[in-house]
Design brief:
By secondary structure, the protein is an alpha/beta fold. The chain is built from 15 helices and 28 strands. A six-stranded mixed β-sheet has the order 2-1-13-12-14-15. The longest helix is centred in the first third of the chain and has 17 residues.
């Protein structure tokens, strides 16, 4: 049955999950299988160790781990004692990692030593060379002035630097007084109103912004989202959406936990191996971004793998014909953002819409409100008129970390989304385009200015202009128009290789155009006309 309390704290929710779903599998990764009961038991033991290590209510805990049981246990352990979690992007390069570590005032970092080709310990030392010579549990470095401890998972027997301790050392931290009864007393102090998580995503400037969400919001909103989703307790759901983004944490992990379903994870998406995984684990739902579906169906194994257990999900291409929508445009899209704790608008995802609602993005979820305003005057517009979408209601963030509230919200409590939309007479939302310049590629937000700064730093470059160009599978792709210094030479492959050292891979432009400045569309005031630039570059792709 659904969680009986519509708002609750993480400890209450975690204990309820164990009692309700017991030995059902919660998450699978490779050979690791974690049940709901085991998640509660392991997080309970880790929570006691965290308390013994000085972690408690309000401690800002960064978590730098890929999807899997380790993330789930660590997240539940920290939140059940009231720590404030900061999920960190596993794609971060040193500059990006340094910004979030410093901005979020991270006190304790829970991390893998590395993941795929990323060595996180080396990156931390790149960010803060002063770490060398520091003592584990007593770190004091200027780049991260609040950081005291780093605990490392999955170090595969390698020797850790002196400033880091292992997961096992954390678990071995015990105090006789901190038993289960003591833990319950701590958990009783954690309330739905307490901040639970700061989720970072790119804002309208080059620096990421951290949205603060409470225990009550994360748990209530994921329950509310399930009212418009087709999730069953028996479902085994595959999703590549990372937990460090709101779609992976709330729309995927927490929605699945409410139902007692199982999340099937993998280290990296590779179509052939993913198809093998879908068959092996008898996956019933696939959720994610459209380009994953295309990659799966284009792979030759899609014709030979037994995917007959698939019954639902929003990656329609890979579903068996019997359950695949005849016209995906007549299934509801959802519109959301980090600031609203994932989707704020959605209709029943498993039901066909009438033709009049083709391509629509659903209605506001219960407890949320939409309005459309003129982005210049702020005047509320009537149904049918295009303008900027504003959202108000329970799932709206408490605020942006380190930003004054009046700089974030309108006086009436609405939040301006910078999404260009209109509402019909029945309150159904139709999304057209971003009013701002944010690029949304395959579910990830990219700030053009951040990419431009990295390109402009190249010695051959005079200036760059970055935009998002339409892509049928990814939504948008990052494209860059680049003006070189006179006589300079630079090729696309060399540029991309350099940028990959500075930027996460999804921020590196997929399309690069070396152009003369006279070819670019500038306004009379000397500013680039990005709308015209998008059209110009799109014609050349």
């Amino acid at each position: 049955m659904p969680f009986p309390e519509f708002t609750a704290s993480s400890p209450v929710f975690t204990r309820w999950l164990a009692s309700e779903y017991s030995d059902r599998e919660l998450i699978v990764l490779n050979d690791q299988r974690l049940s709901y009961r085991a998640a509660e038991e392991q997080s309970r033991g880790m929570a006691r160790s965290m308390l013994a290590a000085g972690i408690g209510k309000g401690t800002r805990v960064g978590i730098l781990m890929p999807n899997g049981p380790d993330f789930v246990v660590a997240f539940l352990a920290a939140t059940r004692i009231g720590a404030l979690l900061i999920p960190m992007n596993t794609f971060y390069k040193p500059k990006e990692l340094a910004f979030v570590m410093h901005h979020a005032d991270v006190e304790v970092l829970l991390t893998y030593d590395g993941f795929l080709n990323n060595n996180y310990l080396e990156r931390l030392e790149t960010c803060a060379p002063e770490l060398n010579g520091q003592t584990a549990g007593n770190i004091h470095v200027q780049p991260f002035p609040y950081l005291r401890s780093v605990f490392v998972w999955d170090n595969q027997g390698s020797t850790l630097p002196g400033w880091a301790a292992s997961k096992q050392e954390l678990l071995n931290t015990q105090l006789p007084a901190i038993d289960d009864d003591y833990l319950v007393a701590v958990e009783d102090c954690v309330t739905p109103a307490d901040p639970m998580v700061i989720i970072y995503s790119s804002g309208s400037t080059s620096d990421p912004k951290g949205a603060i969400h409470t225990h009550g919001v994360v748990i209530k909103h994921s329950c509310n989202l399930n009212s418009r989703r087709d999730l069953l307790t028996e479902d085994r759901v595959f999703s590549p959406m990372p937990f460090f983004w709101v779609g992976g944490l709330v729309f995927t992990l927490y929605c699945i936990m409410h139902k007692g379903a199982c999340l099937v994870s993998e280290d990296v998406f590779e179509p052939g191996k993913t198809l093998e995984l879908l068959e092996k684990e008898k996956v019933t739902q696939v959720t994610g971004w459209p380009h994953y579906g295309k990659a799966l169906t284009d792979h030759p194994d899609s014709k030979t793998r037994d995917l007959s257990n698939l019954r639902a999900g929003n990656i329609y291409d890979i579903l068996p014909e019997a359950v695949r929508p005849k016209d995906p445009e007549l299934r509801s899209n959802g519109l959301g953002m980090t600031e609203t704790c994932s989707p704020h608008s959605l209709d029943k995802m498993n039901e066909d819409l009438p033709e009049s609602l083709r391509g629509s993005f659903g209605r506001a979820l219960d407890g949320l409100e939409h309005k459309i305003i003129d982005p210049e005057t702020g005047e509320t517009l009537p149904a049918g008129e295009h303008g900027e979408l504003c959202v108000r209601g329970y799932s709206l963030m408490q605020g942006l970390y380190k930003v004054e509230r009046e700089e974030v919200f309108e006086k009436d409590g609405f939040y301006r989304t910078e999404d260009g939309c209109h509402l019909n007479e029945d309150g159904v939302l139709f999304f057209k385009a971003r009013i701002g310049e944010m690029i949304k590629t395959a579910g990830a937000n990219v700030t053009p200015r951040e990419v431009e700064v990295a390109i402009d730093a190249q010695p051959e470059v005079q200036g760059s202009y970055v935009v998002g160009v339409p892509d049928p599978d990814r939504g948008q792709n990052v494209a860059a128009a680049i003006v070189l210094n006179q006589g300079a030479e630079l090729d696309t492959d060399t540029l991309k290789a350099r940028l990959k050292e500075e930027l996460s891979s999804y921020k590196v432009p997929r399309h690069v155009f070396f152009m003369d400045k006279t070819e670019l569309p500038f306004t009379d005031s000397g500013k680039i006309n990005k709308k015209l630039l998008i059209a110009q570059l799109s014609e050349q792709i």
